[in-house]
Design goal:
This protein is α+β, with helices and mostly antiparallel strands. 23% of the residues lie in helices and 38% in strands.
């Protein structure tokens, strides 16, 4: 997971000491000022990251993001140094849980930009292992999404198919069903993989949809019931390809119900 909050999540127990961080890094073929704007402008954020965003710029301001599902939250801005440094702080849960901070560092190099992201404050307790790994996986995809948007679709509005189904299954079983023939298979929609971390997540570009970007994953949901996980399908498209998404949404919704009859939509 990245900087998102989830109202009904049941967090791991209160930590007893020590913290750790989740990191991500990517090189983007775009000027540093363009990358900064993509991280700090509400409309730009909505073109690659959340479905909705609001930004009150500057130290003491806030960045609010929503996925119109179970994820939404506001982050306080702790550092604002355009175009090189942004730092935000947020709490996943109640006030008795530790806050997390996300530090964005941008470096210009030969006309390109290096983006380094560190989300810190995760307790060292083993109970938080899944949250840390989920954040690492989340940044791997979201940074790829930022790169994809700025290098291929800069300035274009986006539409998204976002489906989640909660199931009492293991990560391995979820992936086995998703990747089987008759489900997503090895190249759904003719996609070419750009991120392979199965069984946790898999991402690919879809050239037949004007370079759309998709993700399939098995995510921790944090519910009190043991053994529950979320199956996630995500497809974001820009330009004329957006008109193809309603049919794909209907097809994928039916597929998830067929593949995971023991689950329920989130």
């Amino acid at each position: 997971m990245t900087d998102r909050t989830k109202a009904e999540k049941a967090p791991p127990p209160r930590p007893t000491g020590g913290t750790r961080a989740a990191k991500g890094e990517i090189e983007i073929d775009a000027p540093i000022e363009v990358v900064w704007k993509a991280l700090t402008d509400a409309r730009e954020l909505e073109r690659w990251f959340p479905l909705d965003a609001r930004v009150e710029p500057g130290v003491g301001g806030a960045i609010w993001m929503s996925w119109r599902n179970e994820y939404e939250g506001e982050q306080e801005i702790l550092a604002w140094d355009p175009p090189r440094h942004l730092k935000t702080s947020w709490r996943m849960h109640a006030d008795d849980q530790p806050p997390q901070a996300t530090d964005y560092r941008l470096e210009s190099r030969g006309g390109k930009t290096i983006v380094r992201v560190v989300t810190s404050g995760f307790p060292a307790d083993a109970a938080w292992d899944e949250w840390v790994q989920g954040t690492i996986d989340g940044w791997a995809f979201e940074l790829r999404s930022l790169k994809h948007y700025l290098e291929r679709h800069r300035g274009e509005d986006r539409e998204v198919v976002y489906l989640r189904r909660r199931v009492p299954l293991s990560t391995e079983e979820i992936w086995s069903r998703l990747s089987a023939p008759g489900a997503l298979g090895s190249k759904p929609l003719g996609a070419e993989a750009v991120l392979e971390a199965a069984p946790r997540q898999w991402a690919a570009t879809v050239e037949k949809l004007n370079g759309a970007l998709m993700r399939a994953g098995s995510d921790p949901c944090g519910t009190p019931e043991p053994g529950q996980r979320d199956v996630t399908l995500w497809l974001q498209a820009w330009g004329d390809a957006r008109k193809e998404l309603p049919a794909i949404r209907a097809d994928w919704s039916g597929m998830l119900e067929r593949l995971f009859p023991e689950g329920g939509d989130v």
